[in-house]
Amino acid sequence: MILQPWQTRPLVRADLSLPLLGLGTAHLGELFHPVPEAQSRATLETAWDEGIRYFDTAPWYGRGLAEHRLGGFLRTCPRGDFTVSTKVGRTLHRPADPAAFDRSPWAGGLRFEVAFDYGYDGVMRSYEQALQRLGLDTIDALVIHDLDAGYHAPPELYAAHRRDLAEGGMKALDELKSSGQIRAIGMGVNSNERFETAVPEVHPDFVLVAVPYTLLDHQSLHRGMAECQRRGISVVIGAPYASGILVTGSVAGARYAYGAVPETVQARVRGIEAVARAHGVALPAATLQFVLAHPAVVSVIPGAAAPDEVRQTVAHLAAPIPSDFWSDLKGKGLILSDAPVPGAD
Questions:
Q1: pTM across the whole model
Q2: Is 81 a catalytic residue?
Q3: What is the largest CA-CA distance in the chain?
């Protein structure tokens, strides 16, 4: 079956269907390098022209820049023709000295200070700020963002944020959903450890998985992904390219999990690349189609910073891949033997 961006899959626990292919907008927030305004607009226009109708963003992306850019484009599109999700857990505020403000880790973005707040008032404020930046009166889904130990130290602070969510933030999200202001509640996860705790703790409609399920690393197959499938919780794959290396391949300067690539990961990628070359398969095509083969996955939302990147992604989604390619990967131990793959029952 040839996959197309506009084909949809329903969330099990919410009245919402998501297109197979969406666009993540972290790059439009100038994640690794500045993106000129005209290029950002052209990227979004190309995504629309190529049939992409799901767009995901966050206040954190460029400290508000990605939401502004996405909203500026979506305001020109019929509201019933697209789905948009953004994140909660951070609010933006004027810094004491905007001119001297350090915008890192963003290469560009806006001069706004970020505050974490997973309580009732924080979630509501994050939602209201997002409506203003997007210029939309409706957001389809809100995702709890970066409630992960790696973002909150010491452990006592992490525990406090989790309490805030349980005692207040979830009430806010439930109110927004029950009143029809949003249609689904998501939970973002960045690690296998958080994947396992987030699902029973939050009971979201879907989980947005940033790194723990890719062609390169899918140890979560028997852990977090299995738990989602058991509970009827849908999965959106947010970083199918593992932040870069599954597009660029094992080249100098490649990125993995938003940082430098360990040699063990480089070696694994080289093995996958060798099998891909033998079968005439593009590595990004295998990457996208692999994650979509899992029965819990409803959508994949890779990022793009230029029109050609969008066109290539759409082409990779529909590219034919022989079944022997997947068999060879399993035979060489490069993917798990029981991992779902395209074309399998």
A1: 0.95
A2: no
A3: 59
